[in-house]
Amino acid sequence: MKSIKPVIISGREVHPIIEGGKGVAVSNGRSAGAFAAAGCVGTFSGVNADSYDDQGNPIPQVYKSKTRKERFEELIAYAIEGGIAQARIAHEGSNGNGRIHMNTLWEAGGTERVIHGVLEGAKGLVHGVTCGAGMPYKMAEIAAQYNVYYYPIVSSMRAFRALWKRSYSKHAGLLGGVVYEDPWKAGGHNGLSNAERHDEPQDPFPRVAEIRKFMNSVGLNDVPVIMAGGVWYLRDWDEWLYNPEIGPVAFQFGSRPLLTQESPIPDSWKKRLLNLKEGDITLNKYSPTGFYSSQLNNDFLKELGARAGRQVAYSRKPTDELTGEVKVGARGRSIFVPADKVADVEGWIAAGYTEAMRTPDDTMIFVAPERAQKILADQAACMGCLSACAFSNWADNEENTTGRLADPRSFCIQKTLQDIAHGGSVEDNLAFAGHNAFKFADDPLFQSGHEGKFPTVAELIDQILTGN
Prior knowledge:
29% of the residues lie in helices and 17% in strands. The protein is of the alpha/beta class. Helix 2 links the parallel strand 4 and strand 5 (99-105).
């Protein structure tokens, strides 16, 4: 394998290794500081980051206001306070080495305000801002105001070209790198376009080479591309190193750092990751964001699949296609469904799925009464964590609504991610991970994890630099 040489990232020479930013308290200041201390780039999440009380305990993000708009303001206040806290912890842990980045999601609720708040409150502590989940046109302008580098996350050349032409060309000097996130291998939300099939993964090399070709055409020859998603051993990427088709390159590690001593995720989650099999991480489209996402195929995901499976097209009056009459609800109101679906619907009701809930797509799903109550309660408690949410119909606009019916086939993403990050059940919550996470089971570095002895970030970095 070729030697691993340093690259310039955010104005400093570092190892070409970047901690992948994982939201809601999963990439925090402690893990980011350890990456930076090892001469790499540490990344803390600016999404629902933890802040702490005087004893150092995480402050629960409890929402006390009665309206969604007021809770939205609470959400932003929590995020800014938490982001500043994590930046300070990361800075202290870095010992002045490496670089510290903040990861943000453009389509999260109030992201622009959160970035301003953290960068203002933690001046000089954050060297770069990574931003994905959407098209963050304003990121260059914001970065310029604070003289920090910015790193857009894209999944195609077309996306980066649009960002460059509309905005980034005006602030080219602070473009620290372009993150290519493989939409078929990365954990969390993925940037698959409508023209791409989720079940037909593509080789990342030609896609990244296409990005590099465009970058070179506009004078970005020395700006690194950061490969994210599917990165485990650097030996697997040997052909990328010092290849003129790829140019300067760094590699983002998202899943592997989860099982380090500095990783804040609970031990129950760490132990579950140690025992994954290939195929346990799947792509699905239940997220309230509308994006595909990669997550553990646990009881939580299976319940969502079963919920969506008990679904049928319906109308209040018979139509040419909807002729089968079914009585639903406590009042026995009639709905009309396809004739060949009547038996299915009656079977669901007989099995206890008696509550019929409308979706935005002129369908109805059938759930148990306790599930219906939970869905309605979660929708009512919405705090606006997304710029537009399919589950609650919240939107960060003048009307504060998407204008569509809230979708009961989804879930409250902020609630479940907060729960799993702070000790909640791994089976009953959303558990993001990259598709290569099954490699934990055979990676020699993590075998002592079965006895609770996980490697440090420094030990992980040493191992990565060997190519293994």
